[in-house]
């Protein structure tokens, strides 16, 4: 049933692109992507609907890929990341062409991410519609998470340190946490920039609390850390720190009441390996972070066994390295990691130097990306990058749009 609904959605997106234009089609993608992603198990031939949509997006929005819309500096930064990610892709096509092709499509989408949202959104009205679509897109995974939490029904059995992860219809914890967090960002940004009516404010506030509920119930260490870092960024970099601290504390208290009395013990259990290592009960550091140390060690051994050419240029084959720097090292070699580090440094400098009204949100997203690069591989998730670099590009390239909206809230 869900698969057929997702097929209808993809057809509707194509028709909307033809009849209504790119912006309307993009809004439909944003509002429905979480439904399409829930069909990850079902394929048409060798391709899932997620992959099919990943092929269609660059085709539908290729006209946005111009330096004219975003500026030379931001476009070059996207090109730098693209080159870093696919530096060794030619070798991948020789030895594992299907893996390399799948990766290349993802990298094209990541390059597109630097252009798409800044190209499509240039007015307050379009920004408002985009944020509303983003909130709508989060309702499905959040609702499934709440349903699962209240009924105990489990579709996919996923556990970590004895805790059952409420991943709903998804492959693992990441999609639920990802959609929950971007729903939280979109909701907070909407309240920050616009003046919705009281009932709309209440609805958005409840959606934000529900987002935290969904993120919490997948029991992701990264998810917990991202929430904490987001609160700190908002308090430290917001213009009115006292008011921001009050809002964050009030929201946190509401979230604690929602999550219930087991929250403290569950978080202690979630981080039990890390606290055990700190106290000396666990001696092997590789056992922490869900055993990622063993994966990292295996991946490093793979790289160390290569020839000098393989070490410098990579082999273009994507692997579940659970660390983006390590994944890039294997795919693109030392040269790729060097380029990726340059990108990382440059984007960090841009974020810290930014003086716009939405700086807290920009730094929240960069903090999320840094955390995800440590324990996950963001380069594997093209839609994650479309939203991440789309938002950041919009903040940097069209800062006056946000500043004007915020000034209207403050002074009028």
TrEMBL record:
- Residues in domain O-antigen ligase-related? 207-340
Please report a single Pfam family linked to this protein.
Wzy_C
Q: Does the keyword Ribosomal protein apply?
A: no
Cross-referenced InterPro entries, in alphabetical order? Answer: O-antigen_ligase-rel_domated, WaaL-like
Q: Does the keyword Transmembrane helix apply?
A: yes
Membrane topology label: Multi-pass membrane protein
Q: What is its main location?
A: membrane
Q: What is this protein called?
A: O-antigen ligase-related domain-containing protein
User: What organism is listed for this UniProt entry?
Assistant: Christiangramia aestuarii
